[in-house]
Every structure is written in structure tokens, then in C-alpha cells.
């Protein structure tokens, strides 16, 4: 076999095995954990002021520590509310029936940690939580993740940790950036948190959805 032919065969094998590796990687990630939730209290921890994301540390902004809720006008128990996430445009829309409550740029999952598509329901809201995930240079440990709303369906169970939440560790909204969650600017996350169901009782930092207090529907599409 000539040297040129050996090089050609080597390149073909490299492409084949490279494609296979990429395919297997995506298969492995088809049930990945978006985030490990380390705190279900909903409490803001004022002693935790630094977060770690992909090898960099970030200060938790003062706005996260503001625990005075800013109420949103509207019917808190309105079952016509739903949240739309458009992955192609990297935008979120909050609808009250056919009326648009708000829209904003977001950051959803990177290609190897894709945000799932489909119809979901919010199952818990937390004023703040601590999240951990990733490995090696992609490791993150983030305290006081603000205004977090976890969603699920039959194909994407609760333990996988997908949510809509505020993000203080980047300002890259409009581009994919996350480990699968829907990252929101903090003011937008705050508005959505108090607008969406389940209804949060006065003075509480968390609420679980129930048959009497159902969670808002979340529709995610390409």
C-alpha cells in the first residue's frame, strides 16, 4: 500500500470513528443530569457570595439578596398562563392566554447538554437554591441561584434537574450557554417567578405544585 493510500485510509477511519464517538457521546448525554440540587429550602444564604462556573469564580450580585418580593399584577390562579421557550431564537415568552406578559432573550443548553423539547409542568419554585454539576473544567457550583422553577414530564423526570432560573455568572443571553437549564436575566426571572404557578404564599420561599395549586405549563421547541 502506498503512503498516499495509507494516509487516505487513515483519514477515512478517523472520520468514521470520530463520528461514532460523537454519536455515542450524544447517546450518553441523552439522559444527563442538568443540575444536582443541593438545597431545597428556598432560603437565600447571605454568607454564600461566590459561585464557581467552568473554572471561574463569580460574585453573587446584591440584587439576589433582596428578599422583599415584588408582586406581579394579574390573576395568580389563572390556568391560561403558559411559558414558551424558543430554542432557535433563544427567547422566552410568557403568555396569559393569547396575551403576551413578557418576552426576553435566554441562554439554553449547549449542544452536548441540550435543553429538552416538549411540554412540561413546573413542579417546584424556589426563591434561591444551590446547584452543582459538570465535571473537570466544566464543573460548576453555584449558590443562591435566584428565582428557580423546575419543570418535568414523563420523559424528563424531576431528578434530572431542568429549570428556568436567573443567572448571575454570565450575561451571554441570546446564545446557548448552559448545562441544559433555561438561563434568564435576573429581573426577568423574578417577574416570571412571581407570575407563574404554583401560587407562592406570602412570606414563603418555596412551593410545590399540587392538584389544588398546579404548575404553569412550559412549552419548549426548536
TrEMBL record:
Q: Is Secreted given among the entry's keywords?
A: no
Entries under InterPro entries matching the protein: LD-transpeptidase, LD_TPept_cat_dom, Transpep_catalytic_dom
Chain ranges of the L,D-TPase catalytic domain? 81-221
The pathway entry for this protein reads as: Cell wall biogenesis; peptidoglycan biosynthesis
Q: What is this protein called?
A: L,D-TPase catalytic domain-containing protein
User: Keywords in UniProt for this one?
Assistant: Cell shape, Cell wall biogenesis/degradation, Peptidoglycan synthesis, Transferase
UniProt source species = Candidatus Woesebacteria bacterium RIFOXYA1_FULL_43_9
Its GO biological process annotations read: cell wall organization; peptidoglycan-protein cross-linking; regulation of cell shape
Recorded GO terms, molecular function?
peptidoglycan L,D-transpeptidase activity; transferase activity
Q: Which Pfam families match?
A: YkuD
Which branch of life, at top level?
Bacteria
Under the heading Gene3D superfamilies, the entry gives: L,D-transpeptidase catalytic domain-like
Tell me which GO cellular component terms the UniProt record holds.
extracellular region
Which residues are annotated as active site? Answer: 165 (proton donor/acceptor), 181 (nucleophile)
Amino acid at each position: 500500500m502506498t503512503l498516499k493510500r495509507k494516509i487516505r485510509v487513515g483519514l477515512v477511519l478517523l472520520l468514521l470513528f470520530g463520528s461514532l464517538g460523537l454519536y455515542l457521546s450524544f447517546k450518553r448525554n441523552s439522559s444527563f443530569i442538568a443540575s444536582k440540587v443541593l438545597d431545597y429550602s428556598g432560603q437565600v444564604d447571605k454568607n454564600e457570595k461566590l459561585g464557581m462556573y467552568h473554572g471561574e469564580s463569580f460574585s453573587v450580585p446584591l440584587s439576589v439578596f433582596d428578599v422583599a418580593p415584588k408582586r406581579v399584577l394579574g390573576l395568580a390562579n389563572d390556568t391560561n398562563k403558559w411559558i414558551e421557550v424558543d430554542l432557535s431564537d433563544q427567547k422566552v415568552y410568557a403568555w396569559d392566554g393569547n396575551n403576551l406578559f413578557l418576552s426576553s432573550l435566554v441562554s439554553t443548553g449547549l449542544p452536548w447538554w441540550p435543553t429538552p423539547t416538549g411540554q412540561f409542568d413546573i413542579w417546584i419554585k424556589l426563591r434561591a437554591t444551590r446547584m452543582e454539576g459538570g465535571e473537570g473544567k466544566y464543573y460548576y457550583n453555584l449558590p443562591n441561584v435566584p428565582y428557580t422553577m423546575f419543570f418535568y414530564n414523563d420523559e424528563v423526570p424531576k431528578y434530572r434537574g431542568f429549570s428556568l432560573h436567573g443567572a448571575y455568572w454570565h450575561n451571554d443571553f441570546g446564545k446557548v450557554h448552559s448545562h441544559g437549564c433555561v438561563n434568564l436575566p435576573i429581573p426577568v426571572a423574578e417577574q416570571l417567578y412571581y407570575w407563574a404557578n404554583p401560587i407562592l404564599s406570602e412570606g414563603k420561599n418555596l412551593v410545590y405544585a399540587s392538584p389544588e395549586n398546579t404548575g404553569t405549563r412550559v412549552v419548549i421547541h426548536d
